[in-house]
Design goal:
9 helices, 14 strands, alpha/beta, five-stranded mixed beta sheet, 292 residues, six-stranded mixed beta sheet
Amino acid sequence: MIAVDWGSSSLRGYRLDDAGAIIAQRASGRGILHCEGNFADVLAELMDGWPDRTILLSGMIGSRSGWIEQAYLPCPARLADLAAALHLHHDERLPGRDIWFVPGVAVQGAGETPDVMRGEETQLVGLDAGAGMAQVCLPGTHSKWAMLHDGAITGFATAMTGELFALLRQHSLLGRLMDDGDTSDATAFAQGVQRSGEAGGLLHHLFGVRALGLFDRLPASAAPSYLSGVLLGHEIRALADASAQVHLVGSAALTARYAHALQLLGMSAANAPESLAARGLYRLAQQRGLLG
């Protein structure tokens, strides 16, 4: 089968053998925002030379801005629920291919502000978190904090930490006091995480980034790391269960930063492999009986 993790900015494809092992993989920057609506052509290019009939797509490709919008399943969402809701699509430009779309998942209780995910649900069903309760953080532009119970997604919350960091650095007064580049300063990061626990709240702490720079107490090269520490500290304090280990799912750079912040706050973390989306898509196909 072919497993495709198709987000807003990037696209990853995996060819899997009968046991779910990755035998080939490809990646590109042709996320849904960079396809100009030519989704079938982009998928055909990704799969060139891969003859498999069964294709599963997860991520923003199933959103309102993607190829074919998929409904959200409510929590709790189990592997069996997601597999039963897979949507089959055939396209004349891709003859002989069965294209299956994975639905998103939503928190939408009565009187509750809704929250949604697309793509992360597939990574979560690919995670081996064990029986009982488990806490998972998926860092990114919009970080997700999810709770699992025996593998079922029972609830989650989204934090716009990555997007806020980028906006503040690129389009605010704070950014004018920062050096360009991605230099990491561990001491400044730790100071930012510590600051997130002091009185005043996030908005006050953000202005403190500028004030520290004005009084030459925060070098321009260290300011991005300090800002990152403040934001991650507030995110973790607000959304993490301090009594439980956190399973981190994402890129090595991001999960290392979150693991450092968690350690500073007295919490433990375990890293999961980046290819969880492929494993999750394989399990969904297997559950639905698509693999023969």
